Amino acid sequence: MKNGKLILIAYAVFFAAVTYFAVSMADAVLGIRRIDLADYQLAGFLPLKALVGLFLSAAITWFLWAGKKGHYRAELDEVIEEIKKVTTPTKDETRVTTISVFVFVGIMVVVFFVLDLIWSNFTLLIY
């Protein structure tokens, strides 16, 4: 693994996001019953929904971390290598691109204006 720290950070962020959604899902599923199990306190301070969500997110993250003999880690390593190849444009490239976008937008404004004039005159003839 060339990018071990970046991959670890990516999995940590993934784990945090999955934990948030898994806790919300556990809250919804456990709250369906007549007795609301989602807010049931374990050991006096930890709600059941937090434990279920944490377990679900840990299982999903572990599956992606260790599943298929590290296949997902290898793909993530390749993605990071590709991202490192991305370069930012220079000022000249940015200026040329911006000018070409403005020119294209101006041409399209004129084209749509002309088409709108033609269409409005055509509809006036019909009605």
Secondary-structure blueprint:
Blueprint (H helix, E strand, L loop, with lengths): L3 H27 L10 E2 L3 E2 H19 L4 H14 L6 H36 L1
Antiparallel strand pairs: 1-2
Helix pairs in contact: 1-2
Features of the shown structure:
3% strand; 4 helices; 2 domains; mainly alpha; 2 strands; 127 residues; single chain; two-stranded antiparallel sheet
Spatial shape:
flat
The tally of helices reads 4
Structural class: mainly alpha
Kindly state the number of beta strands. 2
Poorly predicted spans: none
Indicate the percent of residues in helices: over 70%
Order of helices and strands: HEEHHH
Strand content: under 5%
Strand order of the largest sheet: 1-2
Gap between N and C termini: 71 Å
Mean pLDDT score, rounded?
80
Counted up, domains total 2
Rg (CA only): 27 Å
User: What multimeric state do the chains show?
Assistant: single chain
